[in-house]
Write a structure and sequence with these properties.
Elements (H helix, E strand, L loop, with lengths): L1 H20 L7 H9 L5 E2 L2 E2 L1 H19 L12 H32 L1 H20 L3 H18 L4 H6 L3 H11 L1 H4 L10 H8 L2 E6 L4 E3 L7 E7 L2 E5 L2 E6 L4 E3 L14 E4 L3 E7 H10 L1 H10 L4 E2 L9 H16 L10 H10 L4 H24 L5 E4 L2 E5 L4 E6 L2 E5 L4
Parallel strand pairs: 8-11
Antiparallel strand pairs: 1-2, 3-10, 4-9, 5-8, 5-10, 6-7, 6-9, 12-15, 13-14
């Protein structure tokens, strides 16, 4: 733009000089300007008054800019041959400058909004894809949420593509910088040499997850060691939350101690927007096998927050609630005291010390008969009776010993008849 104005200034000076030269003619542009403005501009070559210079210069600049921009109102025009030739030359140069300068301005403005244009073009393509393949609404919302959050964190820049432009050494330096939160702060990497850190850094992958995204599925192969840089994750086992992971936690498998790749026993799901840095199993083992000294310190200092290989034994919430209800129910029941010489207690004592299976079955039958007779007599005498229920008996035919007797329900008082 400054170049365009500078060219207009030079042309205005030339136009003024031509006007001075053409004053001896009666139809020069300065003569026409004097008549139109009803002012006597003393613009003879011999002498020019100082108070007329500004008016004449502004008029000349006005004419050159209007001609260079192809506007031209005609109130100032070329009359002589010299003026016409100069005007033609000025219009040609002005057209070229106008196209070059304002074309660059347009390009600069487009570059300012190029990122926004790519973003909206991407969203448009995704919406068209969802509509074409009739993707469910819930999945569409998840995809759009992930795309928007990923764009917000990366600004649409493909890190892998940028790294391909760099040589090997520079690429390693960039990877160390991008993974500095792990390689510089985590205790398992503190004893690593510079070469080891560079070998690890180039193998790390950075992923972004939106709320609801699944990082691992149950039964999926555990082929990544994951470091959670930011965000929160939940670990689900049988639709029950068994662990919550936060920034700085590590999950996956102890590849360097196991010979085979295991299957995940739990599902890992993102609770918030998460940034996860992960390294593939094969790449990690390759680095550890080459740097044997580092492998020892790495195995000693790295502690998994959650090992997806092993299944945790946890009680379900429904089972815990049922157990609490049963305990509360037992508290509300009246306490029952059974004397030591009670027939049922004697038979149970004999039953527990029996080693023969046939004898155990015979005692079981006797217990049932005693319970039935004892209960009937108690009812007749209007005295509280009790029922003993035996759930199951596990026996071994090999050593003919009784293994287990499980009594699930203890003495349940009946209502007095």
């Amino acid at each position: 733009m400054c170049g365009f104005v500078l060219a207009a200034h030079w042309f205005a000076c030339g136009w003024f000089l031509i006007g001075q030269y053409e004053t001896k003619k009666k139809y020069g542009w300065l003569k026409e300007l004097s008549v139109n403005m009803e002012a006597d501009f003393n613009v003879s070559p011999a002498k020019v008054r100082a108070d007329d210079i500004s008016t004449v210069y502004i008029s000349a600049l006005y004419y050159t800019i209007s001609s260079m921009t192809s506007i031209g109102f005609g109130n100032i025009s070329a009359n002589t041959n010299a003026e016409k030739v100069f005007s033609i030359f000025m219009m040609i140069v002005g057209a070229l400058l106008y196209a070059a300068i304002f074309g660059n301005v347009t390009t600069i403005v487009q570059q300012l909004y190029s990122g926004s244009a790519r973003y909206h073009e991407m969203l448009k393509n995704i919406r068209e894809f969802m509509k074409l393949h009739q993707v469910p609404k819930e999945l569409c919302e998840r995809v759009m949420d992930y795309v928007v959050s990923s764009w917000a964190s990366t600004k649409g820049i493909n890190s892998e593509k940028v790294l391909t432009y760099c040589p090997k050494d520079m690429k390693a330096d960039l990877c160390i910088h991008m993974n500095r939160q792990i390689l510089k702060e985590h205790p398992s990497f503190k004893l690593a040499s510079d070469g080891c850190l560079r070998a690890l850094a180039v193998n790390f992958e950075m992923t972004h997850s939106a709320p609801g995204d699944l990082i691992f599925h149950t039964g999926e192969s555990i082929d990544f060691l994951c470091f959670l840089v930011s965000g929160s994750l939940e670990v689900l086992q049988d639709d029950e939350v068994v662990a919550l992971l936060g920034s700085g936690d590590v999950f996956g498998d102890l590849f360097w101690r196991e010979t085979q790749c295991a299957q995940s026993t739990a599902t890992v799901r993102a609770l918030t927007y998460c940034d996860i840095h992960m390294i593939k199993r094969e790449n990690l083992l390759e680095v550890l096998s080459f740097y044997s000294m580092f492998a020892v310190s790495f195995a000693r200092n790295l502690h998994l927050t959650y090992n997806l290989r092993h299944r945790k034994r946890v009680k379900k919430i429904a089972s815990i609630k049922k157990q609490m209800e049963e305990e509360e129910k037992q508290k509300n029941q009246p306490h029952v005291d059974i004397p030591a010489d009670h027939p049922v207690r004697k038979l149970f004592k004999k039953f527990k010390t029996s080693n023969d299976v046939n004898e155990a079955n015979q005692i079981k039958k006797e217990i049932s008969d005693v319970i039935e007779n004892h209960t009937s007599s108690q009812r007749q005498n209007r005295i509280t009776s009790f029922v003993v229920v035996i759930k199951f008996i596990k026996s071994s035919l090999h050593n003919r010993r009784l293994l287990e007797v499980s009594i699930l329900e203890q003495y349940i008082p009946l209502k007095r008849t």
